[in-house]
Amino acid sequence: MGITLPIYSTHPIVSTTIYVLIIIFILWPLQYYSTKTMGQHLNFDALVSFNPDNIVIKHVNKDLIENKSWDWVKDIEVKKDRIWLTINLKKTFAFTLPKSKLEQQDVNFFIAKSKMK
């Protein structure tokens, strides 16, 4: 668009850059609020427990217990105040665990697991 319809008295490259920045500044907040809204409406009704061999998901509203291997987790990121577990699905899904609610041995467990990934 910047090449075919440049902004008055500017170079087409500068016009393209300005158009791209405008589109980014419009779409980025929309993506953020869309994700935030989706997260609020997601009814995750399960208790998840982690052990060295697998992940156990006990659903609260259903009489269902799932056992997942650690291959189910695509990525483990240990941040300053949270641990992020990205799940290996077509539709990206992630667990976030606040470090303040974990014991130090649990934090060390996830740090060790993240190095193995």
Describe this structure in words.
- It is a single chain.
- The protein has two domains: 1-42; 46-116, PH-domain like, CATH 2.30.29.
- It has two helices and six strands; from the N terminus they run H-E-E-E-E-E-E-H.
- It has helices at residues 12-41, 104-116; strands at 46-50, 54-59, 65-69, 73-78, 82-87, 93-98.
- The model has no long low-confidence stretch (mean pLDDT 86).
CATH class of the largest domain: Mainly Beta
> What is the third-level CATH name, the topology of the largest domain?
PH-domain like
Largest beta-sheet details = 3 strands, antiparallel
Q: Helix count, per DSSP?
A: 2
List the helices and strands and how they pair.
Elements lengths: L11 H30 L4 E5 L3 E6 L5 E5 L3 E6 L3 E6 L5 E6 L5 H13 L1
Antiparallel strand pairs: 1-2, 2-3, 4-5, 5-6
